[in-house]
Amino acid sequence: MPDIIQPPHFPRPKGYANGAVGHGPLLFVAGQIGWELDGHFADPPPGTSRFCWQFGRALDHINDILRAAGTDPSRIVSMTIYVTDLGAYRDSQADLGAIWRARLGRCFPAMALVGVSGLVEREAMVEIQAVAELPAA
Q1: What is the pLDDT, as a whole number, of residue 1?
Q2: Which residues of 81-108 are buried (b: 16+ CB within 10 A; e: fewer)?
Q3: What number of CA atoms fall less than 13 Å from residue 137's CA on the CB side?
Q4: pTM for the complete prediction?
Q5: DSSP string, the chain
Q6: Which of 2, 80, 83, 96 sits a CA distance of 20 to 30 A from 106?
Q7: What pLDDT is recorded for position 106?
Q8: With a cut of 70, which residues of the chain have pLDDT below it?
Q9: Paired strand residues for 114
Q10: What pLDDT score was predicted for residue 104?
Q11: What is the pLDDT of residue 135?
């Protein structure tokens, strides 16, 4: 687990860290979006917003890459989340928190949220990049 850096005079962050110091080699995870592995965007289950569904699927893909590299979500040190609809993000924060905890547990990396006008894949509403530590060899 990376060491979290929190200056004492900063407000306490919720759901992210202001800084994290790693202890080993790093894995850089390219931006992941919420499509299915066959390249299409699935409809969300009833009662789930398209935004939340895509957020969860993007995190699923990050977890798949972490596992393939021999690491896990507890070792994520940095993450950048790009969203096309900041209002949907703000309105969904409670649901997004539950989605986050179900997939990443209590991992709170150094993080940035960026509102963008669009992503390369037209149906994509969320894209997430991550940096994680690899276990010591």
Answers
A1: 67
A2: bbbbeeebbeebeeebeebbeebbeebb
A3: 2
A4: 0.85
A5: -PEEE--TTSPPPSSSBSEEE--S-EEEEEEEES--TTS-PPPPPTT--HHHHHHHHHHHHHHHHHHHTT--GGGEEEEEEEES-HHHHHHTHHHHHHHHHHHHTT---EEEEEE-S--SSTT--EEEEEEEEPPP-
A6: 83
A7: 87
A8: 1-2, 18-19, 137
A9: 82
A10: 94
A11: 83
Q: How many CB atoms are closer than 10 A to CB 12?
A: 6
For residues 107 and 15, is the Cβ–Cβ distance under 8 A?
no
With contact defined as beta carbons under 8 Å apart, do 71 and 29 qualify?
no
Q: How many Cα atoms sit within 13 Å of 15 on the Cβ side?
A: 12
Torsion angle defined by CA atoms of residues 132, 99, 87 and 108, in that order, rounded to the nearest 10 degrees: -40
- AA letter at 101: R
Task: Give the model's pLDDT for residue 112.
Answer: 94
